[in-house]
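Run log, item B.
One chain of 910 residues. Sequence copied directly from the ordering sheet:
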Amino acid sequence: MAQPNRITRIDPTRRILLRGQLHPRARAAFDQGRVSPSLNIDYVTLTLAQSDAQKADLQQLLIRQQTEGSADYHRWLSPEQFAERFGVSNADLGKITAWLQSYGLNVVSVGRGRTWIALSGSAAQIEAAFQTELHRYFVDGSEHYANATEPSVPEALGGVISAIRGLHNFRLKPYLKKRSLSADYTSSSGNHYLSPNDFSTIYNLNPLYTTGLSGSGLSLAVAGQATMSFSDLHRFRAAFGVPGSDPQPVLVPGSGTPGSDSGDVGESNLDLEWAGAVARNANIFYVYAFDVMQAVQYAIDQNLAPVLSVSYGECEPEAFSSDVTAMQSWAQQAAAQGITWINASGDSGAADCNDAQNPGLAVDIPASIPEVTGMGGTEFQENGGTYWNAANDTTNASALSYIPEAAWNDSAADGQPAATGGGASVLFAKPSWQNVPGVPGDNARHVPDIALNASADHDGYLVYDSGALSSFGGTSAPTPMMAGVVLLLNQYLISSGAQSSPGLGNINPKLYALSQSSPGIFHDITSGDNIVTVGCTTRIRGCSSTPVGYTAGPGYDQVTGLGSMDMYKLVTGWNTAGTVVPGSGVTMTLVSNLTDVNSTDVVDLIATIVDKSGNTPSGTVRFTAGTVNLGTAPLAGSAGTATATLTVNASQLPVGAGSVVSAFAPGISVSATASIILNVSSQPRLVTAAPVISSILNGASFQPACAPGALISVFGSQLSTTTQLASSVPLPVTATGVAVTINGIAAPLYYVSPTQLNVQIPYEVSPGGTATLTVNNNGQVASRTFFVFAAAPGIFTGFSGALVPAPSASAGQVISLYFTGAGSVSPTVPTGAAPLAQTAIAALPKPNQNVTVTVAGAQAPIQFVGIPSGLVGVVQVNFQVPSGTPLGAQNVIVSVGGVASAAAVLTITH
């Protein structure tokens, strides 16, 4: 819908100041006086503010675009659609343009999204229009210009023009570290350098290349601020056997003359060579301008590519207010258009400003913007392992496998801050998706999000620059590589049918969801730090040369974020994590017992929904495969967790690689989705032996007595193709192609083998009748009924029937026994889950029915009964052996609600 007009009559005599528009580096001590009135000022950008209603609408849209099952999921906007919904009206745009032209200013460009206007003119015209003064400043050995006073605009424009960018010519700095080569590419002294095929080996990209993923047909944008030839790129590709065509240079119209600073040229060489080294057949746009952020703005405005790589930034305390406003505006528009923005997080550790003016903690922008993925740095730690060949192959590669990593911090060796940026933002609040273990419990956005190798010292990336080969590092090194990976991810999702066109938008919500649902994708970096010391000068008051920074640890940390990644697992596992809906706390995961499906198979699709508020999700989950509606399944669960299982025949699934989506949306504010990729063949499975179930018994006593929540053992043949034991809790609902349901509810798996399955009866199975247990072994199924009692205790014993873990005791001694089959418990615990380690003893789940223990027929005093942390479906009882118990072997019986277990044997020693 067209936006309402917000500007009435413009009275140029009634003005308001735009606060926060003085550049922090343009200080009075550096002032060299006023600029010449004739000085030409290129590409001043007015950032046009959205109304409060537009801001709220945009926030909701960005959420829905990342929520599978939503009508807006991955429904990206064109710049023109963005303009109609979130830009200023055409009438207001015309009024602003007319006002600018009344001062003789030239309107260079208007954003297609109608969120900015770029203009140029003489210094005198700029000063008159904005009633400010432009001065010259000599800073860090170079002359700059900037406004010396806050600019103003007519009062009627005050609510529409939020910032003015470009009244100065301070530019962001590139984040790169460059070193001369000190040895051959690989040597006995431990010096190594990374060629493209080293990177693809270490981070497991090669399986993607072998399946044909190379970025072909897709575009990637790299932003820079230098005029480039591609001679170094040609040398790079020839030396390392990298295919690809020249990037398409895109000079931002009217943006001024880009420079040829060696740092900017080196940065662009690094970015272009390595973006193409990962996305090897992608179409790369090199978008450049005098100021790199003008290039970023233009790439987003023109919707050039679904992925944008930016290797520049500045520390938040010294960021210009208008830059902050503009950059977040661009980032949100990029996200709405489906563009993923990857940005370096800085190379000065936790003290990002790296100067005496601001020597303390600081993070880098744009990386700190929530809609941007901040890229941190790691460093390889061989520690005597064999990770390199003794010589290079024909592509000058020698890496053998993944190499363990620590946080990148070469500050001590380099004699100055040289470490991965990270910490807490002072500009942006914590987004809801960043509430994962390890993220500090404050309200700040934290960076970085992820990390890859970034050390120029050990082991640097090989880059041709100025005709020579050098070792490059810094967080700008992994930035274009990660951008290339995201482009390959786009291609994979399109080729697999998971989406029809490129575009992922802001990938951060999915990255953080994956860190919880699929931690095997990430290499958790738990060692190293980004602690640095910024030296002080005597001219700066209150400065202290104190080390500042953070230490890496398990889970998320402010040094390496979520860690580095196995790229093959990242790409192929992208749709295994559900979408977190901000404000709802609801997440969904979807699994199938089969990934490769044959025409004769039966497939179990199991969706698990968790509501962090503790409210158990109820209702139904809908399952779809492309345009095919597979059906719905009811949710069953407790304690905030529920599952829905749909069993489908392979004939219901489209042939080929395709996405299966589960969606749950009981209300406007609560929804969750997830998806997986299934490869469906039209050919029957060669092995067709169906499982055979011979008996279903209590998992402790091996008696035919079972209750809700109990562990049971299923005996038979062809129950599984291999043997596997669950390694953690919550217990998985599939393993080695096996899934088990009881009355249609997924039953968690403790252990699977060809002849025995150990599973938990879901607490949601109703007692007092027969239940049907179904085993699905790699597409072949079998079922058997069994009776479910309200309580059916069975004590865990050794092979001889002796009580474990204490087969003997003395009268009066306090010992423990463990049993399963207690039935319902309070407080409830999710099926397959164990109480958390931090749960107070008094709060541990206890059977709802009375529990008693007898030894040799005498009732034993009970000191504790409950499910301990770490165990699933198993109750612990601490009891005292009654005094006067006879010596020798005695029967121990536990009863729940009057239902007695089979006896275990306890030997009384004295």
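Observations after the first pass:
- The chain has five domains: 15-50+87-165, 173-507, 584-680, 692-788, 794-908.
- Residues 163 and 322 are 5 Å apart (CA to CA).
Flagged for discussion on Thursday.
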